[in-house]
Write a sequence for this structure.
């Protein structure tokens, strides 16, 4: 007989795997999609520090792309992006367009 | 062998806590439990225990801090009564649901309104469905012994549940009795070292306690919690047997008194069982086959064992020191549950006694036994539930 | 002590302690607060969390966004719960049963869980002197249950329990000044911060962690659902709150008040209010008095804070 589900639960509903929310992809919530325009980027990293979803990828201190698995498309990064000479390095576009 | 002393129930339980030496206690004063924690606090001030005391601003916070401390990973105790337990209510379920073995002596006291500070069981009966193990004590000795055993039971790796150790307010908490203490080293060895599974303080392996769990798994978690309760009985008996080897004092799921060949019996909790036993003796002297059953473990309730012990009776009275307004007394309901499995069910009555500390006198037990004699003869029950010991 | 320089480039090299995959609404301010707080320090941290948006969205079934030990038990008791954790830590360290690894303790609560139902537990924990930092992420209403007013909700705001109606135009009362109330506990550190000013926020967290004893930080955390604003304006609004002096950034360290960020030019409070649907009715004809009253309140409080800070600046000079 198959072991019932309730027997497999962690006692006290304690979650043992830190950061397991990574298995839950929130990217599908997005209706707007941020696009990074590298040539306008001054590497200020404001988008990174303000993103509520840790979806701005920074490697070795350098701004890379977005993590679209989790980005919810809120647009904070785009709004806060100072850009170069008034040209934003992040623009929001309709998802799927 | 430890020493023999003359102490109150509160003193005895405070002594048991000193001997167990919990890592954290969080407490808030309330009559008649105040005195217990005051005594324990003086052990802390005198450096007799290693306990970190958290003197919180409410019982809700006391239980919350106990939950935090127990999840952190260590031995935790507190104590309370009545309104204090009621204020903790929300957190009781969380302690049990999180599987945290917090040990809590509860000095039973009536609930408001009207305000009353004396003993009855409405407080712990109100918390009977919280997922805590409940042990009831007749005397200061039992309270002391139960408190020590509670640590072993609650902290048992198969169990890991919180335990309430109940004793009657004032009648036991404040009356001086003869109590035999165990040696400190005996208690220390008996309870052993406790290791929390999944402690929060294991910072190299971060855990999350207290998730939101909706319709997908809540039902399963509760099923799992029920399963743990089914294992408590054996652990209680195993711990009792070890305790007997140590102390010579015998404990079970319940105590029976002259019940084996009895025809009529009273089922009653805690200190009032003492008075009732005297009355049983008197009726036995008169040639009437009276007996008594005193549950010790009320949660989980040992239905089958109680049924087996009551099966041969011709009439049973269940005496409740708590009421369920618009319902039967809580102990009566459980005995009904036990009796349900019998082919021939003995007639039963429910008598509510001793609320708000009203004295329970031998004549009340006598009246109940007299009524049971009639019921046993005729098989006829009048009112199922009635109050006894009411003033004229 | 955390030594990593407060520069984004350097900070970005740290490992995240708060993971993606949490289920806060898009553009919510609370997770920005949490990530900045955890990023500010490299001490090991154990956190308690009051029931509310942050808690329900970060720890559901088998998914947790927390990479630090974390506990939620109920709504009104994050401070009491963390007191228990901290007490156990102290007990076991004192008994030599675990090493002292300089663990720091945080409690997170929303404004409802802090100003209102959790106020007693918070006050008690602060008075007892636990070594902990309580952080209120203040989104100015009970958001998790659907935007009901709390004692942090500002005057005039439209919430589901104080809706702007024909007779009563939103919340009649001013908000409770919890930061001052916490400072009045004479704790060693109380501060107000904003995620729009990340450097100021992180400096405060760092300072708090170098102080033994109870600390309190009140951090504004815009909620676009409840504030009826846009999903991209959490940082913009938390900056405007500071620039209008609606949410001054200051700290009270051992009784000494210091304004940590002074707006270059104090903007009218309407700049903060106008982008938010919860204040929309205040801009309707006939409701001018509401805007005036909101401005008067901000002016009065800002004036008071400046005087207080000036007094302490004088005192410090005299010393
Ligand atoms: C004792 C108790 N009362 C009420 C609730 C319902 N409740 C859950 S979260 C919440 C509101 C939380 O508001 P707040 O603390 O401001 O946090 P937010 O959700 O805004 O982040 C309420 C009222 C509860 N869980 N427990
Ligand atoms: S759109 Fe929002 S979630 Fe996506 S990267 Fe930008 S700030 Fe982060
Ligand atoms: S309702 Fe508000 S506070 Fe709650 S998650 Fe959404 S944006 Fe954040």
């Amino acid at each position: 007989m198959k072991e019932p589900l309730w027997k497999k639960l962690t006692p006290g509903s304690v979650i043992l795997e830190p950061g397991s929310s990574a298995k839950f992809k929130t990217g599908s919530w997005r209706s707007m999609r941020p696009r990074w325009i590298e040539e306008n980027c001054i590497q200020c990293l404001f988008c990174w520090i303000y993103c509520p979803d840790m979806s701005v990828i920074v490697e070795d201190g350098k701004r890379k792309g977005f993590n679209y698995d989790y980005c919810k498309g809120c647009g904070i990064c785009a709004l806060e992006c100072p850009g170069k000479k008034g040209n934003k390095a992040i623009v929001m576009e309709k998802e799927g367009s | 062998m430890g020493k023999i002393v003359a102490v109150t129930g509160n003193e005895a339980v405070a002594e048991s806590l000193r001997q167990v030496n919990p890592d954290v206690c969080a407490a808030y004063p309330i009559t008649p439990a105040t005195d217990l924690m005051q005594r324990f606090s003086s052990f802390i001030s005198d450096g007799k225990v290693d306990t970190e005391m958290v003197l919180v601003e409410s019982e809700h916070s006391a239980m919350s801090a106990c939950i935090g401390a127990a999840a952190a990973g260590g031995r935790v105790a507190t104590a309370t009564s009545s309104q204090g337990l009621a204020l903790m209510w929300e957190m009781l379920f969380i302690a049990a649901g999180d599987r945290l073995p917090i040990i809590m002596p509860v000095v039973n006291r009536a609930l408001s309104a009207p305000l009353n500070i004396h003993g009855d069981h409405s407080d712990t009966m109100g918390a009977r469905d919280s997922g805590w193990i409940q042990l009831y004590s007749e005397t200061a000795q039992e309270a002391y012994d139960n408190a020590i055993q509670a640590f072993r039971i609650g902290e048992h790796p198969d169990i890991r549940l919180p335990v309430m150790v109940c004793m009657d307010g004032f009648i036991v908490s404040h009356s001086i009795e003869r109590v035999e203490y165990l040696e400190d080293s005996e208690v220390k060895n008996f309870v052993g070292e406790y290791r929390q599974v999944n402690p929060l303080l294991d910072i190299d392996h971060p855990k999350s306690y207290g998730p939101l769990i909706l319709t997908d798994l809540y039902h399963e978690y509760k099923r799992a919690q029920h399963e743990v309760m089914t294992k408590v009985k054996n652990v209680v008996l195993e711990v009792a047997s070890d305790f007997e080897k140590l102390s010579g004092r015998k404990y079970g799921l319940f105590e029976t008194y002259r019940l084996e060949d009895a025809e009529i019996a009273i089922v009653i909790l805690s200190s009032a069982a003492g008075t009732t036993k005297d009355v049983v003796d008197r009726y036995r002297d008169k040639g009437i086959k009276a007996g008594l059953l005193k549950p010790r473990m009320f949660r989980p309730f040992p239905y089958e064992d109680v049924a087996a012990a009551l099966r041969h009776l011709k009439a049973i009275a269940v005496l409740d020191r708590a009421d369920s307004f618009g319902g039967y007394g809580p102990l009566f309901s459980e005995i009904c549950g036990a009796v349900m499995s019998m082919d021939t069910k003995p007639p039963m009555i429910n008598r509510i006694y001793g609320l708000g500390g009203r004295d329970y006198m031998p004549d009340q037990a006598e009246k109940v036994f007299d009524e049971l004699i009639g019921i046993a003869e005729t098989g006829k029950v009048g009112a199922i539930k009635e109050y006894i010991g009411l003033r004229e | 002590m955390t030594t990593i320089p407060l520069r984004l480039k350097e900070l970005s090299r740290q490992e995240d302690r708060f993971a993606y995959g949490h289920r806060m609404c898009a553009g919510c301010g609370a997770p920005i607060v949490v990530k900045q707080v955890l990023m500010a320090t490299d001490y090991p941290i154990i956190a308690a969390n009051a029931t509310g948006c942050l808690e329900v969205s970060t720890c559901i079934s088998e998914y947790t966004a927390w990479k630090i030990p974390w506990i939620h038990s109920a709504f009104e008791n994050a401070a009491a719960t963390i007191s228990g954790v901290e007490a156990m830590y102290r007990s076991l360290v004192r008994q030599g049963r675990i090493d002292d690894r300089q663990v720091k303790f945080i409690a997170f609560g929303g404004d409802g869980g802090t100003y209102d139902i959790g106020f007693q537990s918070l006050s008690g924990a602060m008075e007892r002197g636990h070594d902990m930092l309580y952080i209120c992420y203040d989104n100015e209403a009970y958001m998790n249950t659907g935007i009901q007013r709390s004692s942090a909700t500002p005057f005039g705001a439209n919430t589901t329990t104080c809706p702007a109606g024909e007779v009563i135009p939103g919340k009649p009362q001013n908000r409770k000044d919890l930061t001052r109330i916490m400072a009045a506990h004479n704790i060693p550190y109380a501060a107000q911060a904003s995620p729009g000013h990340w450097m100021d926020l992180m400096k405060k967290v760092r300072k708090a962690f170098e102080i033994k004893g109870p600390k309190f930080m009140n951090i504004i955390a815009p909620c676009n659902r409840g504030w009826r604003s846009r999903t991209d304006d959490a940082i913009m609004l938390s900056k405007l709150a500071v620039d209008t002096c609606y949410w001054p950034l200051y700290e009270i360290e051992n009784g000494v008040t210091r304004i940590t960020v002074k707006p270059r030019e104090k903007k009218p409070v309407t700049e903060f209010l106008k982008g938010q649907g919860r204040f929309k009715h205040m801009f309707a004809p006939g409701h001018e008095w509401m805007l005036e009253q909101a401005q008067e309140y901000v002016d009065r409080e800002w004036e008071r804070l400046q005087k207080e800070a000036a007094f302490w600046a004088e005192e410090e000079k005299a010393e």
Chain C has a mean pLDDT of 97. Chain C touches chain A at residues 8-13, 16, 18-32, 35-36, 58-59, 62-68, 195, 198, 230-236 (CB under 8 Å).
